[in-house]
Amino acid sequence: MRSLASIVLGFETVLLALVTPVMISVAGVRPAVAVPVCLGLAVLAIVSAGLLRFRAGYVLGSVVQVGAVGLGFVVPVMFLLGLAFAGFWVAAMVLGRRIEQAKKAHQAQTGQAQTG
User: Fold this and answer.
1) Residue 68 CA to its chain's centroid (Å)
2) For the chain, what percent of residues have pLDDT higher than 90?
3) Which residue ranges does UniProt annotate as crossing the membrane (predicted)?
């Protein structure tokens, strides 16, 4: 689960960094507002990726998803991109849990076969 989540956050970091000039040039947001908001979310994504071995990393990652969708109020295309990454985030959580459960079941089955 952790590796899938870190991949999503890594790509989202790039997206959040690239939306900064879009906010400034297309949406007309002042650089003093756009830079801290977008790059702050990008830094938060990096920090949360580093904390994924703890529950706090997943909580911060979810905050990043909400922030990315919230940027859609300024740059409407971010509703679409933010929701896409939020979907990737949920998929990483669901698929990651399934993979971990399958690994545990396989290890338990393999361990029983070796002892039997």
Assistant:
1) 9
2) 76
3) 6-26, 33-54, 66-95
